[in-house]
Specification:
Rossmann fold, single chain, five-stranded parallel β-sheet, 2 domains, 7 helices
């Protein structure tokens, strides 16, 4: 398996190179590039399976790779490398693209490579990159990438009515009565959607979009009816917070 590291800092490249070799025996070749342009040339020449790409580089940001490579060539996985930024982390999570925080650690690198190997060829990287770049450019989150059995589907956040936990999976109930079973637990989506959108965790099994609440029924302990006529639970310890929120809508 081939890997390419694109980073303008030589020391950072060498450290990452060492961690990659030490943590994955299947990687036979690791190539390095000091900027995006030379990195793109390496990608076209070597056809790697994984590319580690720094975001903050002079002249061209790693985010601009989408402007240099035709979408038909995206037969590899990208792992972005970045300094900590709460907004950046949200953007990566929304687009389902992996990332490493600097300074990188051996465990981070090992886990990132394992995840990338499982995803190779299963997702639309071009669409993921487009959504990621749009988020960074507009400083808004409009869509979320949902991994399911056949790949990744992008869904408008505004179209999500509610999400229901189903063991290690999550059911997304959307407008037009569409339901998507996603291969991640509900707890994965709670920190992603809460805080940047109008979502509220009414119960350990439900994350609801407050814009689609039809009714709150007090009898039988209290429950919520959504616009698609489905009923969701609300736990006792969430009722006061919920009532306070809907009073402001």
């Amino acid at each position: 398996m081939k890997v390419i590291i694109i980073d303008d800092e030589r020391k950072a490249r060498n450290v990452l190179n060492t961690l990659i070799v030490e943590n994955h025996s299947d990687i036979t070749d690791v190539f390095q590039a000091e900027d995006l342009v030379s990195g793109v040339e390496l990608i076209k020449k070597e056809r790697p399976q994984i590319v580690f790409l720094d975001i903050e580089m002079p002249e061209y940001s790693g985010m601009e790779i989408i402007d240099f490579i035709d979408k038909e060539v995206y037969d590899f996985e990208i792992i972005f490398v970045t300094a900590y930024s709460e907004y950046a982390i949200k953007a990566f999570q929304m687009s389902a693209i992996d990332y490493l925080l600097k300074p990188v650690s051996p465990s981070q690198v090992k886990l990132a490579i394992e995840k990338a190997c499982k995803k190779i060829g299963k997702g639309d990287l071009n669409e993921q990159l487009l959504e990621l770049k749009r988020s960074f450019t507009e400083l808004k989150f409009k869509k979320i990438a949902l991994p399911f059995s056949d790949g990744i589907k992008f869904v408008s956040i505004d179209d999500i009515i509610f999400i229901e936990a189903d063991g290690m999976y999550s059911k997304f109930f959307l407008k037009k009565l569409e339901v998507i079973m996603v291969s991640k637990p509900l707890k994965h989506f709670v920190p992603i959607l809460e805080g940047v959108t109008n979502f509220f965790r009414s119960h350990r099994s439900f994350l609801i979009n407050m814009n689609y609440i039809k009714e709150y029924i007090k009898k039988d302990g209290g429950y919520i009816v959504m616009d698609n006529e489905m009923v969701v639970s609300i736990s006792n310890d969430k009722k006061q917070e919920f009532l306070s929120l809907i009073s402001k809508i």
